[in-house]
Automatic annotation (TrEMBL):
InterPro entries: MFS_trans_sf. It comes from Penicillium expansum (Blue mold rot fungus). This is Major facilitator superfamily domain, general substrate transporter.
Length: 130
């Protein structure tokens, strides 16, 4: 595999090579000159990274714990929505009708499920690094 295996590595390698050889740009006219060692498209091919998933042990249980924390924080509010509705109707918005207050939790549920349908597959495809 060449030293230009990834676009970021390419820029780093070009910078380091020019810095080490003393070919750093010294004037504005030098900036416009093309570099003699430009990488080809074959050199810029993406890296093949093998992703491994935990099949047990501490790492697998950390994944389970993280999923539980995420689901509890996003779906757990449904279990407490009655308590929030009482507080909102008695303290925060006492003049609002119950049908008006129902929109707060309806919109939350809609956004939670509709965005989840689109964000979930995107996260699965790209992962947390994207």
């Amino acid at each position: 595999m060449s030293e230009y295996s990834h676009p970021i590595n390419t820029l780093d390698a070009l910078y380091k090579k020019e810095t080490l050889t003393g070919n750093a740009y010294s004037s504005t006219s030098d900036i416009e000159k093309p570099s003699p060692h430009l990488p080809t498209t074959a050199d810029l091919a993406p890296l093949k990274i093998e992703i491994t998933y935990p099949e047990g042990g501490r790492d697998a249980w950390l994944v389970v714990l993280g999923a539980w924390c995420g689901l509890t924080s996003s779906l757990g509010i449904y279990n407490t929505s009655g308590m929030f509705e009482v507080v909102i109707s008695k303290v925060i918005l006492p003049e609002a009708s119950s049908s008006t207050l129902g929109w707060i939790f309806s919109v939350y549920a809609f956004v939670n499920w509709v965005c989840g349908v689109q964000i979930g597959p995107t996260f699965d495809a790209m992962g947390p690094r994207a």
